[in-house]
Write a structure and sequence with these properties.
40% helix; 2 domains; alpha+beta; Porin; two-stranded antiparallel sheet; eight-stranded antiparallel barrel; 20 helices
């Protein structure tokens, strides 16, 4: 009996791990090694930024202040800064390490501190595994191995929705979701766990500002203590300001991952319907992005932070393709033999700007400003966007959320004449909902009738589930979100279907039903960026039941989607309109050939009505 229970427990745990692994594979943005690389590079550049912002007279003084106030040291063989009191050898905890563990592996800064300071902890075991993967040139450790160490990693992936933008909401709407009450509650360490439970429900940008503002508050308090001559208390508070800032920057960095700009947040979407598949799709193609400075770049997702674009494929000579060639977005203090992408430059620059804002707060308080940022936060949510625009220059580095009206946000004056160009970039892309309809799990209602002379009163009613989150695709040339005339998109995914055939007693047709499964193939031929002819087919096998007999069934189908060729895009319609319109108009229809063992071939014409995707 004990053995049987043990087997059941192992099976239960195995199924749970598999399910959570599927979710964790897309719940987070950049992998650990990518977050660490961003954080470490930003910290290595920080002394220069601190000098440029007038906080310290030269880089040597800035470097010395970082080492003394934060009890840091230079990591041997690199430009990274190590946090001495958090390091348990052989692990070395750099600033980038904090960015990588924050949010993905540990829920809040206080748990991160205690986890790293406890030698035999799950946090240190997780870090050892991630470091091993990084040393093997992987961007992150295997999810199953991480779950074996700490099942809470998977639970956090499910309940923490804050790694995404809120797709469809503009920049001002994101900023209005900053919660002043939660920020103030962080002043009491006893409230931290409860506050972060609430912060987990915010979009990445909103959560970032909540934590970043509190990090600035701690830096102000540290500066006041240093001004009074209490060096130890100043160091303590600046240490926690740094912990909170590293945590905040994890979500700043997530905001630059393409897959996390294009999905709707929510448990049902991420675990059941469309977030995972959309996330995975947008990780693989460049997503044009812009910020308030007017800078534009092609964003990618996790595992592709510094993806080598292999420019030689389109080069006519060898003059401008060398890896070590300096670009306008090249950064100092890096591996000169690594190709760095524009998105890496953008996210490191934003991270540097964010840290500088914390140190500015410290320096101003040290000089006796007496400021308390918590007293500056507006009480009215409608005033929060302007507060951010006035107070935090880092907002200009963030990718502008898709769906933002640029008339409502403060573009830099130097790019005002490019507003129309930038608006085209940040508008909700036409292909987004089309792609969602192809890669999201979808359910459709089938209404059909046999194709033969004696079909009066004979109808088929059924349903189809396309498990499209498991898919193979080829999206045109794979170079962007906009399709050109002549581009073709291919999609393959599993499908499950079945129907019941109703026949009146006077018909020679026998009532029957079937259940089958197989593969779905879609081919979309674009005739313009917003019009395409959709051709699709199914190849399924299953069982047919009639006359108290169950027989093997093979059922290939071919279909056509005409609506999008004439500009009627059902994937852009709300359900209350899409469903009745799909019944009234033959926007999608297919012909199925049912071949049941030992029976004549049946031809069925089906109208397909998309219910959910």
């Amino acid at each position: 009996m004990n053995k049987r229970n043990t087997i059941k427990q192992l099976l239960h745990r195995g199924c749970l791990l598999m399910g959570i692994s599927a979710i964790t594979s897309s719940a987070f943005a950049w992998d650990f090694a990518e977050h660490r690389k961003i954080g470490d590079r930003a910290m290595s550049l920080l002394p220069r930024y601190l000098v440029e912002n007038g906080i310290f007279p030269n880089e040597a003084v800035a470097d010395s202040a970082l080492l003394q106030i934060l009890n840091m040291s230079h990591m041997p063989g690199s430009n990274a800064y190590a946090m001495n009191e958090l390091t348990q050898l052989p692990n070395i905890v750099t600033y980038g390490t904090l960015c990588g563990l924050a949010g993905d592996h540990v829920e809040n800064p206080m748990l991160l501190e205690t986890g790293l300071q406890t030698h035999f902890s799950k946090t240190n075991r997780t870090l050892a595994l991630e470091t091993q993967a990084m040393n093997e040139f992987l961007t992150g450790a295997n999810s199953k191995e991480l779950l074996d160490i700490n099942l809470a990693y998977g639970i956090l992936a499910i309940k923490d929705l804050s790694h995404f933008y809120a797709y469809g909401k503009g920049l001002n709407e994101h900023l209005k979701m900053i919660d002043p009450e939660l920020i103030r509650r962080l002043q009491r360490p006893s409230e931290v766990n409860k506050v972060f439970d609430k912060l987990n429900q915010l979009p990445s940008m909103s959560k970032y500002f909540c934590i970043h503002i509190f990090a600035i508050y701690l830096a102000q308090e540290a500066g006041k203590e240093m001004c009074k001559g209490d060096t130890q208390m100043a160091s303590n508070l600046m240490f926690y300001a740094t912990m909170y800032e590293a945590f905040a920057e994890h979500f700043l960095q997530d905001s630059f991952a393409s897959g996390h700009q294009m999905v709707r947040r929510g448990f049902s979407a991420s675990a059941v319907s469309n977030n995972k598949s959309l996330h995975d799709f947008y990780n693989t193609i460049p997503v044009q992005t812009a910020n308030l400075k007017g800078e534009t770049w092609s964003a990618y997702g996790d595992k592709r932070l510094n993806q080598n674009m292999m420019e030689y494929n389109e080069a006519d000579d060898y003059r401008h393709i060398r890896v070590t060639e300096k670009h306008p977005y090249s950064l100092e203090k890096g591996d000169s033999y690594e190709r760095e992408t524009k998105v890496f430059y953008q996210v490191v620059t934003a991270t540097c700007e964010s840290i500088v804002e914390v140190w500015k707060a410290y320096q101003n308080a040290l000089e006796g400003s007496g400021e308390n940022i918590l007293n500056e936060i507006p009480s009215e949510r409608d005033d929060l966007p302007q507060f951010v625009y006035d107070r935090f220059p880092v907002i200009k580095d963030f990718p502008i959320p898709f769906g933002t009206n640029l008339d409502d946000v403060p573009l830099e004056a130097s790019v005002a004449d490019r507003k129309d160009e930038l608006q085209l970039i940040v508008q909700e892309p036409f292909t987004r909902n089309f792609i969602r309809s192809r890669v999201a799990n979808s359910f459709m209602f089938l209404i059909g009738t046999p194709i033969h002379s004696n079909r009066d009163g004979v109808m088929t009613y059924g349903g189809r589930l396309n498990v499209s989150m498991i898919n193979w695709h080829k999206f045109g040339k794979g170079k962007g979100m906009i399709m050109e005339p002549g581009d073709i998109a291919h999609w393959v995914s599993p499908t499950i279907s079945g129907y019941y055939m109703h026949a009146p007693s006077s018909s020679y047709t026998i009532k029957n039903w079937n259940v089958k499964a197989g593969a779905n193939y879609n081919m979309d031929i674009f005739v313009s960026p917003k019009r395409f002819l959709g051709l699709y087919s199914y190849f399924e096998m299953g069982i047919d039941r009639r006359n108290d007999e169950t027989r093997f069934l093979v059922a290939p189908s071919v279909g056509i989607q005409l609506g999008s060729l004439i500009g009627v895009h059902n994937f852009n319609m709300p359900g209350w309109l899409r469903i009745p319109l799909g019944i009234i108009l033959p926007l999608k229809f297919a012909v199925t050939c049912n071949k049941v063992a030992g029976r004549p071939v049946e031809w069925i014409s089906n109208m397909e009505v998309d219910i959910l995707f």
